[in-house]
Write a structure and sequence with these properties.
Radius of gyration of chain A: 21 Å
Strand order of the largest sheet of chain B: 6-7-8-3-9-10
GO molecular function, one term (chain B): ABC-type amino acid transporter activity
CATH superfamily of chain A: MetI-like
CATH topology of chain A: MetI-like fold
Radius of gyration of chain B: 18 Å
Domain ABC transporter (chain B): 22-256
Shape of chain B: globular
Number of domains of chain A: 1
Bound molecules: adenosine-5'-triphosphate, magnesium ion
Order of helices and strands of chain A: HHHHHHHHH
Structural class of chain A: mainly alpha
Protein name (chain B): Amino acid ABC transporter ATP-binding protein
Helix content of chain A: over 70%
Number of strands of chain A: 0
Largest sheet of chain A: none
Organism (chain B): Allomesorhizobium camelthorni
Strand content of chain A: under 5%
Structural class of chain B: alpha/beta
Number of strands of chain B: 10
Order of helices and strands of chain B: HEEEHEEHEHHHEHEHEEHH
Helix content of chain B: 40-55%
Largest sheet of chain B: 6 strands, mixed
Oligomer: heterodimer
Largest interface: A-B, 22 and 34 residues
Strand content of chain B: 15-25%
Family (chain B): Belongs to the ABC transporter superfamily.
Distance between the termini of chain B: 51 Å
Chain lengths: 221, 261
């Protein structure tokens, strides 16, 4: 089968239909994964008793395939009376899966801050919350900007998993076209190009954010 | 928060004349099973300048870090500015704001300008408004002879300048006691004097100072007392004239021979 450029152009709008959901799922999952990852990391840094539990939880999340987690949420939760819309289940699944990795990003971002920073803050009499808010967080954000940006692309690329939950997104739209026309090359290439474009836009946005964090002093106390 | 702080200030005002700034009795500190300090006794009066020296690993840093509880001791009595420090106690912030500390590696906040490094604690801890805080900061940057760098970031300054900013940052809080942990050992030789000069000025202003340093010229000139430590203990204390010319302890003799070549 020859690649038909005209056909690809023709189906472009149809594949594009899924892009809204793809972006929505990617952004929601990125936020979800960051918030959850931050919570796991805080728990891991809290009391001696919580730490091993948090560590086990983070390891467990990272050691199970995302598809297993998605199927679990989608098929098992309803048995216990928890019925979520497919899209929300998908966002939850991807958020939880990536939160395990993003917790590690936060960990590395905090570990990279020399101990002397919080010691200097303590020696000035700054409270723990002020030390976290004015000293640790701003430096951590700089440290995590780059790896977090990389995970935002990974999250974007994992949105097609939602096809298994029948959530209409870009890969799903491409499959719809394929099953209607029996042509696979064009819809897949179009979907691939759209993902590439989204990823590049995402990277550009993250780079801009990074640059701003790098240059903008924390002027407002 | 505030009442505790005011209470301690009030006590100090009453007792400043009689009570020592720092009183250390039988202080012991372990890292896991390793004993870093063994029954240390040391009393420091207000206005006194103490230089602590001794071989690497003798517990100098551990001792002065106990004074502001960056390290927690396990045994003994420790009274700072009239407050008895109990291991694991709450309200350390109220004690630390009156005890300035200067670190070997400066520990300036790299994401804040020199000015913001100085004003952060003034605003968050002393609750000054921006204008008041900046006035205090400028005055202290003047004091360490670096007023023109206020809007720069630490990374734009030389090591000596950074350390002087660190001193100014500590001074902004108007501490009753200043602790220095090898403030010049991370500096290139040509920058050591600018920092020592600032410290000498401070001493002349009557600041109570506890300095861990191997700058024996500074010690001779400024110190009221040299405290020599070895293996977690204070083995000798004497005025510089006596310590340098006639050290009693074998370890001190050896140490002086090594350090003065
Ligand atoms: N956090 C720690 N955990 C375990 N042991 C430590 C810790 N900090 C210091 N020690 C040990 O305690 C002893 C005293 O250390 P300390 O840093 O107080 O020595 P020091 O006199 O300041 O030495 P230096 O001149 O090298 O700075 C050393 O043997 C050191 O290895
Ligand atoms: Mg030391």
């Amino acid at each position: 089968m020859k690649f038909d450029f005209a056909f690809a152009m023709e189906i472009f709008p149809q594949v594009l239909q899924g892009i809204g959901n793809t972006i929505l799922v990617a952004i929601a999952s990125f936020i979800g994964a960051s918030v959850l990852g931050f919570i796991w990391e805080i728990l891991r840094r809290s009391s001696r008793f919580v730490r091993p539990v948090a560590q086990l939880w983070i390891d467990a999340i990272r050691s199970t395939p995302v598809l297993v987690q998605l199927y679990f949420l989608f098929f098992v939760l309803p048995h216990y009376g928890i019925v979520l819309p497919a899209m929300l289940t998908g966002v939850l699944g991807i958020s939880v899966y990536f939160s395990g990795y993003i917790a590690e990003v936060f960990k590395a971002g905090i570990d990279a801050i020399p101990r002397g920073q919080s010691e200097a803050a303590s020696s000035l009499g700054l409270s723990r919350p002020d030390t976290i808010g004015y000293i640790i967080m701003p430096q951590m954000l700089r440290n995590i900007a780059a790896p977090l940006g990389a995970y935002s692309v990974s999250i974007l690329k994992s949105t097609p998993y939602l096809a298994v939950l029948a959530v209409p997104e870009m890969l799903g739209s491409a499959f719809d076209v394929a099953s209607e026309t029996y042509r696979y090359a064009e819809p897949m290439v179009v979907a691939g190009i759209l993902f590439l474009a989204l990823a590049m836009i995402g990277v550009a946005l993250v780079t801009r954010l990074e640059r701003r964090l790098g240059l903008t002093p924390a002027k407002d106390l | 928060m505030t009442p505790i702080h005011e209470l301690s200030v009030h006590n100090n005002a009453q007792d400043t004349m009689q009570a020592p700034a720092i009183q250390i009795e039988n202080l012991s500190k372990w890292y896991e099973s390793f004993r870093a300090l063994t029954d240390v006794n040391l009393t420091i009066a207000y206005g006194e300048r103490i230089v602590i020296c001794g071989p690497s690993g003798s517990g100098k840093s551990t001792l002065i870090r106990c004074i502001n509880q960056l390290e927690v001791h396990q045994k003994g009595r420790l009274v700072v500015n009239g407050v008895t420090l109990v291991p694991g106690m709450k309200g350390l912030s109220a004690i630390r704001r009156d005890v300035g500390m200067v670190f070997q590696h400066f520990n300036l906040f790299p994401h804040l300008t020199v000015l913001d490094n100085c004003t952060l604690a003034l605003r968050r801890v002393r609750k000054l408004d921006r204008r008041e805080a900046e006035a205090v900061a400028h005055a202290n940057l003047e004091r360490v002879r670096i007023p023109e760098q206020a809007d720069k970031y630490p990374s734009q300054l030389s090591g000596g300048q950074q350390q002087r900013v660190a001193i100014a940052r500590a001074l902004c809080m108007k501490p009753k006691v200043m602790l220095f942990d090898e403030p010049t050992s991370a500096l290139d030789p040509e920058m050591i004097n600018e920092v020592l000069d600032v410290m000498t000025l401070l001493a002349q202003d009557g600041m109570t100072m506890v300095c861990v340093t191997h700058e024996m010229g500074f010690a001779r000139k400024v110190a009221d007392r040299i405290v020599f430590m070895d293996q977690g203990q204070i083995v000798e204390q004497a005025p510089p004239s006596e310590f340098f010319t006639n050290p009693k302890h074998e370890r001190a003799k050896l140490f002086l021979k090594q350090i003065l070549h």
